[in-house]
């Protein structure tokens, strides 16, 4: 599976102030060519720590059969 991740900035009015909000998106493409949204998260700004939370959430979707080194590599990435 190929996964694209991006953050989209939106201007939102809150209590008569305009602030930025970020929608973090993860979209996957499988071998059959089917795309699907893996998740959407709402944040205040683009940050490495928020992306780490997104990757941690996506890690919960990973299912493997303990290929040689695969599981260890995935868990070290978060």
Give a summary of the structure in a few sentences:
By secondary structure, this protein is of the alpha+beta class. Helices cover 24% and strands 45% of the residues. The protein has helices at 48-59, 70-76, and strands at residues 2-14, 17-29, 35-43.
Structure description:
Belongs to the transposase mutator family. It holds the Pfam family Transposase_mut. This is Mutator family transposase. Required for the transposition of the insertion element. The protein is α+β, with helices and mostly antiparallel strands. It has one domain (2-76). It has 2 helices and 3 strands. Strands 1-2-3 form a 3-stranded antiparallel β-sheet, covered by helices on one side. It starts with a strand and ends with a helix.
Structural domains: how many: 1
Low-confidence stretches: none
Global morphology: elongated
The helix-and-strand class reads alpha+beta
The biggest sheet, with number of strands, parallel, antiparallel or mixed sense and barrel status, is: 3 strands, antiparallel
Strand content: 35-45%
Number of strands: 3
Instruction: Give me the side-by-side strand order of the main sheet.
Output: 1-2-3
SS summary, helix count: 2
- Spell out the helices and strands N to C: EEEHH
N- to C-terminal separation?
A: 19 Å
Radius of gyration, in Å, reads 16 Å
Percentage of residues in helical conformation: 10-25%
Average pLDDT, rounded to a whole number, is 82
Pfam family, one: Transposase_mut
Keywords: DNA recombination, DNA-binding, Transposable element, Transposition
Family: Belongs to the transposase mutator family.
Function: Required for the transposition of the insertion element.
């Amino acid at each position: 599976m190929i996964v694209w991740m991006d953050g989209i900035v939106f201007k939102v009015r809150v209590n008569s102030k305009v602030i930025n909000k970020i929608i973090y998106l993860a979209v996957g493409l499988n071998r059959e060519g089917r795309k699907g949204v893996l998740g959407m998260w709402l944040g205040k700004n683009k940050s490495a720590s928020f992306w780490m939370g997104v990757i941690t959430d996506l890690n919960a979707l990973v299912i493997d059969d303990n290929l040689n080194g695969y599981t260890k590599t995935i868990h070290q990435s978060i």
